[in-house]
Amino acid sequence: MIENTILVRVCEIKQITEQVKEFSFVPVDQFNLPAFSGGSHINTYVNAGNEMICRPYSIIEHSLIDNTYKIAIHLSTESKGGSEYWHIHVKEGDQLQISYPKNHFPLSKRAKHHVFYAAGIGITPFISMMKDLKSQNKSFELHYTSSTNKGCAYYDFLIEEYGDKTSFYFTKEINPKRLNVETLLDHSIGTHVYFCGPNRFISQFNEAAYAFGYPKSSVHMEIFTPRIVPDTKAFEVKLSNGTTKQVPIDKTLLDVLLDEGINIPYSCRVGRCGSCEVNVIDGQVDHQDFLLDDEQRKSNKMILTCVSRAKSHQIVLEL
After folding, report:
1. Contact 251, 312 (CB under 8 A)
2. How far apart are CA 77 and CA 83, in angstroms?
3. What is the rounded distance in angstroms from the CA atom of residue 16 to the CA atom of residue 10?
4. Residue 17 contacts by C-beta under 8 Å, 6 or more apart in sequence?
5. All domains of the chain, ordered by start, with CATH?
6. How many whole angstroms separate alpha carbon 150 and alpha carbon 146?
7. 192-217: per-residue pLDDT in tens?
8. In which element (H, E) is residue 57 found?
């Protein structure tokens, strides 16, 4: 853990739906939790036996009165330890470290109208974003899809606070309704669209937005899980001082570098923010990020170490 953190205590846990729990934190010391802008998240650090589990979660709410942050965590059927550990083991009174708020998913200041597209737990960043827009009397709307009404996180809250701005799509109710990409065609010029949910959902709507002619600057997405890369292979990384290390199938290049004590910055761990970018001296890069454009990828001069790997047997980095 190389970033500055805040020691907090879990002061309340609420069961929002069968698969979603809400966790509230207060600082252990006499410390005012920092303010943040809509769309921000924190990295959470939980000790799970011999393993430190680091996961990013959107901040849903910051109560100035109670000096608390709130996050919501969906119990994933494909959990690699993060959501499962939180749901089963984390209890009220437990202490953990969290990062200071970060925002890789900010609201556009140029948008004439903001449209949010959420699937499942992808609703979480939009709650704080809509609160900011409402306080500024800005124009926005929400399209939210979930399997059922009962499984829809924060349904009652959204009806009460933003009922006139929200459209729900429940795919497994008696009269199912699906959220289709053609909805993107309903928005006027100057609209910015924001996507959050499973990677497949984000990719589908992201690609459709570009196909429908949205400028890249008007399309925004929040991703908390890296792409699933089939047939991942081990490779060797060589540093500029001549040191070589193996990067196994089950570890990222970033993790190997951190294990070696190399103080490399990082944040999102999904290939979106660019914090962990390193210059490449030699070797072919298998780019798996969401940040670099086609020209940057073809140049083969940089790699986002949190998600990308080597196509070649060895890659040489300027470290």
Report:
1. no
2. 9
3. 16
4. 150, 151, 152, 153
5. 5-99 (2.40.30.10), 113-222 (3.40.50.80), 235-317 (3.10.20.30)
6. 9
7. 999 999 989 999 999 999 999 999 99
8. strand 51-58
The whole-angstrom separation of Cα 60 and Cα 131 is 10
Q: Is the pTM of this model over 0.70?
A: yes
Residues 6+ apart with CB under 8 A from 265: 2, 275, 276
Which DSSP state fits 206? H
Query: Is the alpha carbon torsion for 258, 279, 104, 141 positive or negative?
Result: negative
Q: 254: which 2 tokens?
A: 């970033």
Q: What is the pLDDT of residues 63-117, one digit of tens each?
A: 888 999 999 999 987 666 688 999 999 999 999 999 999 898 999 999 999 999 9
Sheet holding 113-119, edge to edge: 166-170, 140-146, 113-119, 191-196, 219-222
CA distance 198 to 78: 12
Instruction: Report whether 109 contacts 138 (CB < 8 A).
Output: no
Rounded-to-integer distance, Cα 305 and Cα 72, Å? 28
282 strand-pairing partners: 316
The tokens 């699937």 sit on which residue?
119
